[in-house]
Design goal:
The complex is a heterodimer of chains A (about 200) and B (about 220). Chain A is of the alpha/beta class and about 200 residues long. Chain A has 5 helices and 8 strands, in the order βββαββαααβαββ. The longest helix of chain A is centred in the last third of the chain and has 16 residues. In chain B, helix 2 packs antiparallel against helix 3, helix 2 runs parallel beside helix 6 and helix 6 packs antiparallel against helix 7. Classes of the chains: A alpha/beta (about 200), B mainly alpha (about 220).
Chain lengths: ~200, ~220
Amino acid sequence: MELVVSDLTVARGGVPVLSGVSFRMGAGEVALLRGPNGSGKTTLLRTLAGLQPALDGKVSLPPEEIAYAAHADGLKATLTVAENLSFWASVYGTGAIDGALERFRLSELARRPAQNLSAGQKRRLGLARLLVTGRKVWLLDEPTVSLDSASVGIFAAAARAHLDAGGLALIATHIDLGFEAREIDVTAFRATARQGGAFDEAFA
Amino acid sequence: MIALLLRDLRLAIRAGGGFGLALAFFLIVVTLVPFGVGPDEAVLSVIAAGILWVGALLACLLSLDRIFALDWEDGSLDLLATAPVPLEGVVAVKALAHWVTTGLPLTLAAPVFGVLLNLPVAGYAMLVLTLALGTPALSVIGAFGSALTVGLRRGGLLLSILVLPLYVPTLIFGAEAVRRASDGLAYEAPLLMLAGITAGSVALLPFAAAAALRVNLR
């Protein structure tokens, strides 16, 4: 399991944001994506996840190997915690959700509708979804937003277990997650001028 | 896929899900028309087929923007697009869920509402048959329109304007088949056209809708 990104150019709204993005990650490795707001971290993650096409360059892994977690958790307010999670478990064909609930300390909330959860609990449920996808590569966009320090600890432990099991994770974050990780600063890849890029993004 | 269908049905039934909205709207249209045009039985039985079809169509239109807009807002559409299910399948399943929660109840309730409009006896079986054949097309065409407008805030107006012209053939042939059956005329031609429109939309539009979603998710 290796993620190799070579010479990738990503665009937002048809305008290149980052170009020449190249890095390599092996199994068990974690990298933190750094850069100020609007520098293209989310665009890079969405491109790697296959949600938008790259203008140029190559990614070694197909989107089918990747689990993506965005700012929004994709929770349905009227479904319970367990129903939300089992839906994703059956979409990914993994089935069991107890382990994920346990790891993110959600077992006691399992029968509560998602609309009654606090912001941090919702976030934990959104992150628990990653465990039921059963995928090796995690792309996380600001996973610790609205988490308190204890919950960040829970998340860091889950990520650590995932890495130890041979997974890898690329995390866009501003805070210290408490583990050794290399950093990828996206400002180094900032696209200078308008280059390539079809005129109309609909036909790009 | 089945999980997605069950989730959408469950969401529709839970509070605020909009189940029954289409049916209530249909009932309102059908009960208001006799007050508007007067209680003349002869007039009502002439316009009954048309009113029932227009009512069903508008009721269907009412809930279209929910098909994708809610999943877009809470981010589940992004996650579904990265999940191991084809987006075409997602569209088809969501259109099916929309049909089960709107088209199917409308079809089943239509004979009762036909009584309110003094629909000729010969037309009842055809009313149920045309609605059963035609409402799946309404749901699939609606899913396509919903996919096109998914990124827009308050896209409901644009959605209605986009979708209404596409609904016209279904309405014409559906209402025409009921009218002919009520009058004891041959109804095969409009019925077959209606079935053809549905078969074509169900076969092609999920692909078009999935392509529209991919563009909108960028």
